[in-house]
Write a structure and sequence with these properties.
The chain is α/β, with parallel strands linked by helices and 273 residues long. It has one domain: NAD(P)-binding Rossmann-like Domain (Rossmann fold), CATH 3.40.50.720. The chain is 44% helix and 16% strand. It has nine helices and nine strands. The strands form two sheets. A seven-stranded parallel beta sheet has the order 3-2-1-4-5-6-9, with helices on both faces. A two-stranded parallel sheet has the order 7-8. The protein starts with 12 loop residues before the first strand and ends with a helix. Bound molecules: nicotinamide-adenine-dinucleotide. Residues 18, 20-24, 43-45, 48, 69-71, 100-104, 123, 154, 156, 199, 201-202, 204-207 line the site of nicotinamide-adenine-dinucleotide.
């Protein structure tokens, strides 16, 4: 066995937001392929959720979908309550909340409107915050010494890169990164670990409008020139963040070295010209 002391996926249930597309969708598939006990899938894209469920006809009783905009006032409590009812059998199994839903809308800081800032923060920071706390109230009541699950937030390398046009997005993800640590401090005594995964650039619908020229320029900062990873590469880190023992209050960056050594790579390329 490659990871002998990992927590068993088949004893856990999971909630995934943003499950209809990209990373969240790939995560749902991986968890089902590894026999997760039950999955509560959330997205505002109903056809996407239905097509995902249809891909796993033998698991239909283990999957429940909720088509909802996570920024609605009633969404966090509704998701947490319905998921608790769906998961609970004799006693609540350990549950992992994966906050994957996110939006990006690039614009120079001076042109971003308050409305834009609010709508980006509502999805990327407020909704994960409120859903995590709703789950603490509904699913993880009371204190516990034993493993009762995890919260895993998808943040981004954006706050470390300061790319033009990403001020609102980067600020929202920086807020989520900090929330990860705050929640870890408060939830660990309840038997819940809280971690984050910070992707670089991932081939999903979110990045499909980025021009080849832009991507090629950014790829020069990567030591081996490979900028775009697959959703599956991010899912690997999400699994570690949720199921690896002794892993708490951490962020796994999956960006092929872009943030840590990107500038150095570009510098070296300049020197060798
Ligand atoms: N793709 C990348 O390069 C990249 C890089 C860094 C971080 N991320 C982060 O990874 C996460 C997943 O992104 P992705 O690339 O899979 O994007 P994606 O666009 O493929 O998927 C995002 C999903 O979130 C859902 N969603 C958005 N707003 C919602 C709302 N208000 N209510 C309910 N559902 C909503 C969408 O319907 C969609 O299914 C996001 O948080 C994103 O910010 C992505």
């Amino acid at each position: 066995m490659l990871f002998p002391n990992f927590r068993r996926i088949d004893t856990h249930c999971a909630i995934i937001t943003g499950a209809a597309s990209g990373i969240g969708r790939e995560l749902a598939k991986r968890l089902l392929e590894n026999d997760i006990a039950a999955l509560y899938l959330v997205d505002r894209d109903l056809p996407g959720l239905l097509s995902l469920k249809e891909e796993f006809p033998n698991f239909s009783r283990r999957i429940q979908i909720q088509d909802i905009d996570i920024t609605l006032k009633e969404a966090p409590d509704a998701i947490a309550k319905n998921a608790a009812i769906f998961f609970k059998k004799d006693s609540m199994p350990p549950v992992v909340l994966f906050n994957c839903a996110g939006v990006v809308r690039d614009a120079f800081a001076v042109k971003v409107t308050l409305e834009d800032i609010k709508s980006i923060f509502e999805v990327n920071a407020f909704a994960p915050f409120l859903l995590a706390t709703a789950c603490v109230r509904e699913i993880w009541k009371g204190k516990s010494e034993v493993n009762r699950g995890a919260i895993v937030n998808i943040t981004s390398v954006s706050p470390a890169l300061h790319l033009f046009g990403q001020s609102a997005y980067a600020a929202s993800k920086a807020a989520l990164a900090n929330l990860t640590l705050q929640l870890a401090a408060e939830c660990s005594r309840k038997g819940i670990v809280v971690n984050a995964v910070a992707p670089g650039f991932v081939k999903t619908p979110m990045t499909k409008n980025l021009s080849d020229k832009y991507l090629e320029a950014l790829a020069t900062a990567i030591p081996n020139g490979e900028l775009l990873c697959t959703p599956g590469d991010i899912v690997n880190a999400l699994i570690i963040a949720a199921f690896m023992p002794f892993f708490n209050a951490q962020t796994i960056t999956v960006d092929n070295g872009l943030t840590a050594i990107g500038l150095s790579t570009m510098h070296q390329a300049m020197l060798s010209k």
